[in-house]
Amino acid sequence: MIKFPQGFLWGAATSAYQVEGNNANADWWEWEKNSGRFRSGRACRHYEFYKRDFDLAKSLGHNAHRLSIEWSRIEPREGKFSRRELKHYFDVILALRKRNIEPIVTLHHFTNPIWFSKQGGWVKRRSVGYFLRYCDFVTRSLARYVRYWITINEPTIYISHAYIMGVWPPQEKSYLKAIEVEENLASAHIAAFRLMHKIYKELKLDGPYISIAQNMMAFVPGKRDLKNLFAAYLRDRVYNLGFLERIVRHNILRYKAMDFIGVNYYSRQLVELKKFGIPNLAMDVGDGRRHPCERNSLGWDIYPEGLYGVLLELKKYGLPVMITENGICTPDDNLRWNYIRAHLKYIHRAMKKGVNLTGYLYWSLMDNFEWDKGFAPRFGLIGIDYKTYRRTVRKSARKFARVCKTGVLED
Q1: Is there a catalytic annotation at residue 272?
Q2: pLDDT tens across 383-398, in order?
Q3: Range 2-409 classified under CATH 1.20.58.220
Q4: pTM of the prediction?
Q5: What tens digit of pLDDT does each residue of 211-231 get?
Q6: Where are the domains of the chain?
Q7: Pairing between strand 102-108 and 391-393?
Q8: Which candidate in 75, 154, 172, 182 is catalytic?
């Protein structure tokens, strides 16, 4: 039997664009329409059904829920803020509070207003000022009801998919633009962190807890020779820690810029270089025959021990850590529960080694629109019938609920 501490945050996560539906002022919406890709459409209709969804979360023992605010709803045109949409998110957060569920609010989860993207998006330095203006409006309005904030979700994923691989809007393939975007996202977080803490002080509120949600992977050498070991180390430094280091460095050298570390963890990458060259160091992966393991429906390796290693590596920063996403897409619900249970065991092991872990949020509360993969991947604790929008609580969700309600994981 494994016991977690009292006050531990248990729950699940969603993002606005993936569950709300009809986010017609977002760059993704326009890109879907123009590119002929999957259409998000009404998604899960969570914009309408959020109360019943939170009732389900409450019934499953969740005491925390991560959600995002859709910037393109709040500021559909440059400098024109929607009080009606702000009232909607105010009601959403009050609905969580009414159910004694702690809201963890993300301000940027991949999507941007169309007007913002048409002006160059995150490539332009003025993007930082636009983001701060949005943060100021939202924070002043919601501060009394929100303690936990994520400024930017998975900046490394956003940069790689939108500006290096070019599979997400704006579909650029430019390392120079990627560098500019990274600089602006880091600056935006640091400036937003300072602004938001200032607002809480002005309002005479207890200080908030602010972070990013950093996607992290386990980089595992397929063969433990020099080139694979070096490549795994390099990828860990660049992909897992590069953006994080930019922010944490301010904690040490200048001023605080992070109250905790948000970690999104799903999988490993098996590092097997075909030859020793710069592209190979960055990109070569193995096919898994040397180190086979189960995979989710997108082909991602299931590797819970990798989360243990990631958490131990974060100890050096001396900050609390929250698992802001961890989940699996699969049609096999038994595999879903096995995935959750295995990761919780490794999380507990990391806590026994001194990692100050404050919460675990499964991705996601419900099936949703999985970006360029459409609706096929099923990550949810709650299944969605996209014809009727009926919600079905999966057995894995009920097993996880026993842990959420008791803080105990049975072996």
Answers
A1: no
A2: 999 999 999 999 999 9
A3: no
A4: 0.97
A5: 999 999 999 999 889 999 999
A6: 2-409
A7: unpaired
A8: 154
